[in-house]
Amino acid sequence: MDLLGSILNAMDKPPETNQKQKEIMKKQNEQIEKMKNREKEELNRFRRFAEERIDRISKDDSRKFIQFQPLDKVYRSVVHDVAEVAGLLAMSFGQEGVDRYVIVYKKECSPSEDEIHARRNGEEWNDDKAKEYAQRRLQKKLADEEKAKKPEKIVPHSNYKDKYVHLIGQESALEAAKKTESNKLYGFVPSENKRDIRSIEQTMADIQAKKRLKLEQHPTDNLG
């Protein structure tokens, strides 16, 4: 075989390889499509199952809610959608990827705050648990009422003496504090700081005496 023939034979092989790759990709796409169809059919089957269960609780006056087993997010979304269409309330509880589940309630039987709190904490809700939460709320209410009765002690944020130490010095601040301490007779000003310490009666008597003295010295000032 000559050189040119060898080259041509080599060039014919790539199309065969490309054809194999196309066949492989075609099979893969077919498998993916089959998986999608199976998932779609599975979701449709689960939706019919959810519709049947929710329809039964809607017609049963003795039941307040229905609880589904732990489900993946996509299945929980189906339950929420079916419940909304049926006019019911759906709520999810539990840890994602571990035990998260859905409960569908009749709207007239919506869960209390205590039940929601308990289920979110991973607790099972029953009559005993309801009594326990009611007792907790009562104890908290009594504690809050008792606390409200006690007067709040007001504590100053800072000491006024320390506030001005950097301006007038430690000794001056202490001295000023002493002078402004409460005094039983004169309020906040010490009696020794007052210029006139006479009583009111004594002051009035002194004024009258000054007037008499002035009249005696200048008897004609009040004439004309």
Q: What this model shows, in words?
A:
Residues 44-108 form the R3H domain. The chain has 224 residues and is mainly α. It folds into two domains: 22-149, R3H-like domain (Ribosomal Protein S8, Chain: A, domain 1, 2-Layer Sandwich); 160-215, no CATH class. Helix content is 61%, strand content 6%. A three-stranded antiparallel sheet has the order 1-3-2, with helices on one face. Strand 2 (89-93) and strand 3 (101-105) form a beta hairpin. The model is unreliable at 182-187 (pLDDT under 50).
Helix and strand topology:
Layout: H1 3-59, E1 65-67, H2 73-85, E2 89-93, E3 101-105, H3 113-120, H4 127-149, H5 160-163, H6 165-168, H7 170-179, H8 200-217
Antiparallel strand pairs: 1-3, 2-3
